[in-house]
Predict the 3D structure of the following.
Amino acid sequence: MPKSINKHFDFKNIKTAFELRYLILILFTGSILFFACSPRPNIQGKGEAFMQGVWNEDSVAFSNKLTNYTQHRFKFTCDSVYIDFETHSKVNFYEDSCYNNGVWKEYAKGVYAVKGDTLFVGATFTYANYKQKISGCYRIGRYDKNFLIKKRSADTILLESLSDQREIKLSLKSKVTCVQKEL
């Protein structure tokens, strides 16, 4: 190479600058990963303060005109939810041994989250003791439902199911204090 080109391009300085940029990039990426990927505490979440308690749906609008309807009871404690369903049906969708004269109960246990005006419930159907149900009458598996929180006050919450637009008017029966437990 001619000496005039060597004066303008010092390959040693370019190599050092490249190594320095590479080192800075590695340190920057490492620090982001270190702070972003810190482990979460092994404790359940607090949930929403206004939701904590036992909430009952005392009545279902137009229930006397519906072929079937379900009344709900929710218990929110920290970020956990326990749901009792009481279904009334004039039509038998199940085996005769499960129909129970058109009235039956189901249960679910899971977690919930509130984002803006939406309640997200992710639960699993259970037996009455809230142990996982894997067979039997009625529904089994997951209960994943989203609700619009239309109104809320200290003792009333009005939910609207985003899947079937049915309203659920819940009345507070008792307050629950969140005591976080280890997972």
